[in-house]
Amino acid sequence: MTAGTPGQPPEDSLVDLVGKLARQGSHLAQEQLHLVQAELHETSNEVKAAVAASLAAVTVGVAGLGVLLMGIAYYVGDAVDNIALGTVIVGGVTLVVAAILYAGARRKLAATELKPRLTIETAQTIPAAATGSLTNTGA
Question: What is the value of pTM for the model shown?
Answer without folding.
Answer: 0.42
